Amino acid sequence: VYNFSAGPSMLPESVLKKAQSELLEYGSSGQSVMEMSHRSSVYDAIIRDVESSLRRVLAIPENYKVGFFQGGASTQFAMVPLNLMTTGKADYIVTGNFSKKAAEEAAKFGEARIVASSKDRNFTYIPDVKAIDYSKDASYLHICENNTIFGTRYAELPQVEGVPLVADMSSCILSRPTDVSKYGLLYFGVQKNVAPAGMAVAVVREDLLGRAAESVPTMLNYKTIIDADSMYNTPPCWCIYMMGLVLHYIEDEVGGLAQMEKRNNEKAALLYDYLDSQEFFTNPVEKKYRSVMNVTFTSPSPELDKKFCAQAEQAGLVNLKGHRLVGGMRASIYNAMPRAGVEKLVEFMREFERENG
Ligand code: PLP
């Protein structure tokens, strides 16, 4: 089937095959990666390779550190304020459910000022980042760069002098080249474009480390994990290994993030061009802010939406039901979704429109 789930989502087939071939024995170690000590020299080589591959693929500058964290992106919602909110204040732009949750979490530790929100039009756009009245004394500005549920993404990043930009990139990381130097900190849960669920990765500008109060729990201090090369305690070993396979796939099979972006733009264009060419299905998002990863659409009625999802499933197009906050349908077309999957979806939509329009 083609799996349009918003996450956990598809992994490239070649990655799964490689993992399968190494499942029982990694190299000539006599062990599965799942079984080996994280302190062994074999595993040490794996984790080092994963970090250096990520640094290469994302072109991470020297003055940024990388850490692998358990607890998913939601734990990052707390770690960000716990580590960076030195002035007791931070700015948040709310463009959907996850940025709202991040702001609510931060409000437990200080003043999380919502400087802009797109709630007025049900999160179908991104506020104009140049027209926002940012706080001068904010410790950082937080955004969610791609809004998984509402199918929007920033067309332009806010850049406020002296205020580090912190971005949740869970549903867009590795989908295109990223200028890491524009961020103070970026983080992502891995379960969409990077690896099986179970981990978040943070890329942190060096000067932002070491600012957490003494009272911050050891495991929630970025410095603990980063200073120990993500080996302070037992890391999510298997997940890190799988991330390495995905990074090698991006480098060796796709040809890097510029090529990945080209593929993703082409896939998204197939779907959006079709949506724009007819009147049966509707995509509510302002064109400029359309996500290339999550495409939302509705049919003329909730009954037809339901029928669409059921029939699509029978045709091998699964997990198209929209998030409960939005309704309708959502096609998540992350890196691993082949072009053929999107073509089949568009063909199915045309057919459904003909039969029900
Ligand atoms: N941020 C974004 C943009 C997401 O899409 C998600 C999950 O789908 C999360 C955060 C929450 O991630 P996690 O489930 O890893 O805590």
UniProtKB/TrEMBL annotation:
It comes from Anaerofilum hominis. This is Phosphoserine aminotransferase. Homodimer. Pfam families: Aminotran_5. The keyword 4Fe-4S does not apply. Transmembrane segments: none annotated. The gene is serC. Catalyzes the reversible conversion of 3-phosphohydroxypyruvate to phosphoserine and of 3-hydroxy-2-oxo-4-phosphonooxybutanoate to phosphohydroxythreonine. One of its GO terms (biological process) is L-serine biosynthetic process.
